[in-house]
Amino acid sequence: MSAAERSEASEVTIEAVPDEAAETDFLGRVVREALAVVPVLDRGNLPARVEARLRRAGLSVRLRGRYTPRAEPRLGSPRRLDHVLVTDGVDAGLAGLGGAILGAEPVRLDSVVSPGASQVAPAPSSALLLVNCRAAKTSEVLEHASILSARGWRLGLIYDSDPIESRLAMICALLISDLPKLSSMALLSSQRSPAADVGAPAWLIDPAEVGAAELGAPRDLLIVSGHSNPQDALFGTEHALCSRAGIRHSTASVGPAFPCFSSGECFRQAAFGRDRRDATGLLDVRSVAARVLVLAGCQTAPLGDGWSDPDANLAVQLQHSDADAALVTACTSIERLELNLLLTALLYDGRSLGEAAHLVNRARRVVHLQASSLPGDLGPLLVLGNPELRFEAQPIRTMPVRSLPDGGFAVDLDGVSVDRVRGAFVRLDLEGATSLLLSVTRKPEDVWCRGAVVPGENGVSVYLFLGVPAGQPTTLAGAIEMLPGTDPAAGAVATLGAHLAQIPFWMIYLESFRQAAVERGESVEADALRESLALMAPFAQSLSLAATALRARPGVVGDGRRLEELCDAALIEASSLASVLLQCMILVSGRFGTMHSAGWEDHFERVDPIGPLDACMCGAQMWATRSRYLGNPGLERAEYQCARCGPIGEGDPRSLATLTECPDSCVRDSLLRCGVVCSAPAGERLHVSACLFVESLYADERRDAGAQVDTCVPAGESQVLDLRVWLPADLREGVRAIAVLAVVNGAATIFRQMINITAT
C-alpha cells in the first residue's frame, strides 16, 4: 500500500482548546476514554498549522473549533512508534499530549533503564525522547540513551523549547510516519569539486553557486554538509545557516552565545568579503522548505545542557520549521561525500530515518574509523522527529557481478537508465567478501561514478552512484571493473611518507652547513642553503597533503585511474624536492668535501654497529654505525666504512641503492662512469635523484658535478643507474675521492671511493 493509500484510510480529528488548563482537562478525557481526538492549543495559529502539516503528509484531517462530547472512535497507536520518554524539566502538558496521542503513559528516560540495576527496557523499540535543554544534564541523557541505542532502540528527539512549536513538532512526529517517494533532493557539500565531478547528477549542487532561494526551494530531502557548530553551518563561499538570523525576539534576551548576538557584528562576513554588520548570506534555518533536512556538519544538536542558549541552537530552531523531520549531529562528524550519498540511497530504498542514521553511523565508526564523543553506538547522526518516518520505498536495483582473471570483478551497466537530475543508484552484494577497499580500474569514459562500501550480513554491499554529462545518452552501456583489496596509490604514499620522514634530517643538515658557510665568510653559499631551508616547510605541507589525499579510504570506491594521475603529480613534487636537496649536497661537497656526517651526527644517537656487511668494491669487509634521531625513532642513518678504503658512504640503513661499478683509476680528459643499483622495497616506489661528483682538493679545482639522473623504480623492482662525469684535462694527477651523491626516497645518500687520476 502506498503512502497515499495508507493516508486515505486514516482520519485525524483535531480539537482547538483555549488554554493549558483546558488542554489538561481534555487530555484526561482523551486518555480515559481513548478518544480519536487530538487537542491543540488555540494559540499562535497552531490548529491551522497542524492541519496544514498533516494534510501535506496525506492525512485526512477534521478541524473542530470547540470540543463537544460525543461518541468517538478509539485513537489507535500510530504506526511503528512505541514510547514517549522524557528528561528532567519537560512540561507535563507536552508530555501528557504525547502520551495521549500514543495511547501510553510517558515515562522518564532514567526509569526505563538504569545502568546500575538489572531493570532494562524491552528491545527493540522506537520512541520519542522529549528533552528540556535547560534542565536535563547532557551526561545523564547520553548515558541512558546510549544504553537504549545499543539494545536496538531508535530514538527521535523533540525539544521542549517553545510551547507552541514543541507541540506542533510532537503532534506531527506522532501522526506522520510515511512520506511519498523521494523524488526531489539536493546535496550541498563542501567536498564537491565541480571540475573533478563532470557528469555528476544535478542534485549534487555546487555550494559556491547556491543562494538563499535554492535553500528555500521545496524538495523532499536537503543535505547540508560542511563546517558547523551549534550556532551556524557554512556552505559555499557566501552563505551560512545562522542561529542569530533565526531569533524571532530580541537577541539581548538570549543567554550564552557567540559575541555577534550582543554586538551585531558577524565574524564570518569578513571571509565572505562583506561588512561585519551586513546580514547578507546569513540564513534562518526555518526558511528551509525541505520535508527532511540533514545537517551533516558538527555539533548541531544538544542533548541537554550545553555551552550555549538553546534558543540560539540550529537544531532547536530547525524544529520550528515546516520540516517533517531532520537528521542532526551531536558531536564532531567527518565529511565524506560518499556517506552523504549512502544516506540518500538508504532513504531512497525506504529505510526509516532511524535505521538509515544507524547504518551511516556504524559506517563512520567501523569503516571510516571516526572517533565519537558520544558513548556506545550513539550518533553522530540523530533523528529530530519521528525515527520511523520513511519515504515510500523505491527499491535500488541489485546488479550481478562477474569475476575477472586478475581477481577483480565487473558490473555490466547495459540498460541502466540514469536520470539527469537524480542520477542512478545501483547495489552490489559481494558474498563472502571482507575487503572494504575497492578501486575502479576501468569504466565507460562518460560515466560519473562514486561508491560507498558497507559491511553486510554475509559479505559487503557496494552502493554505486552514477551520472552522465549533459548531452550524453542516459541509457548506459559498457561495464565498470573493480579490483578489491588493493590500494593503487600505496606505493606512492609510502614514497611520499619516506620523503616526509627525512625532513627533520634536512633541516639539521642544511642549517649546520649554512652556519659553517657563514663562519667561513661564504655568503653566497650560506644564502643558497638558507633559501633551500626555507623551502622545507612548503614542501612538507605539499607532500603531506598529497599523501593524505592519496591514502586509500576503506568504504569509499576509489577511482584507480584518477589516483594514478594524482600519484604522478605528487611524485613530480617529490622529484622537485629531491632536485633541490641534491643541489645542496653538491654545494656542500664542493665547499666541505664529500663526508657530510659532520652536519648531522651530533644530533643523532648512535645505536649499534652493523656488520659484517657485504664486501666493499675493493673486496674488503664493510661495517656500519647506525644512528637514530631522538625526535623520530623511524629516522635512522648509517655511516659505512671499509678497512682498506676508510669511510665509504652514508645513507638510509635499508640500503635501497648500492654502488656496483667504480674504476680504481681514470685518465684525465675522459669520461668517468659508475653504476648504482636501485632496489625498491615491496609496497614502496623508489625515487632516486643522483649524480657523480669529483672531490676538489684545491680551491681552484671547484668543478661541476656530472649530469643529474632521475628515476622512479616500481615497488619490488630494481634498476641500474649509469652515472657519468667528465674529468677535465687540467685536473691534477693523483688519488682523490669521487662520490655518488643521491637523494633516495628523501634520504641523503653518498657512495665514496678513492681513485687514482692519471695523465695517460
Summarize the entry for a quick read.
By secondary structure, the chain is α/β, with parallel strands linked by helices. It is built from 17 helices and 40 strands. Among the domains are: 3-175, no CATH class; 397-486, no CATH class; 492-758, Immunoglobulins (Immunoglobulin-like, Sandwich), CATH 2.60.40.
Radius of gyration from the alpha-carbon trace, in angstroms: 35 Å
Task: Report how far the terminal alpha carbons are from each other.
Answer: 100 Å
Number of helices: 17
- The overall strand count is 40
Uncertain runs are 1-9, 67-79
The CATH homologous superfamily of the domain at 492-758 is called Immunoglobulins
Mean pLDDT comes to 86
CATH architecture tag of the domain at 492-758: Sandwich
- Strand arrangement across the biggest beta sheet: 5-4-6-7-18-17-16-11-9-10
Structure characterization notes:
The protein is α/β, with parallel strands linked by helices and 760 residues long. Among the domains are: 173 residues, no CATH class; 90 residues, no CATH class; 267 residues, Immunoglobulin-like (Sandwich). The chain is 26% helix and 30% strand. The protein is built from 17 helices and 40 strands. The strands form 8 sheets. Strands 5-4-6-7-18-17-16-11-9-10 form a 10-stranded mixed sheet, with helices on both faces. Strands 29, 30, 31, 32, 34, 36, 37, 39 and 40 form a 9-stranded mixed sheet that branches. Strands 21-22-27-24-28 form a 5-stranded mixed sheet. α3 packs parallel to α7, α13 packs parallel to α17 and α14 runs parallel beside α17. The N and C termini lie far apart (100 Å). The N terminus is likely disordered.
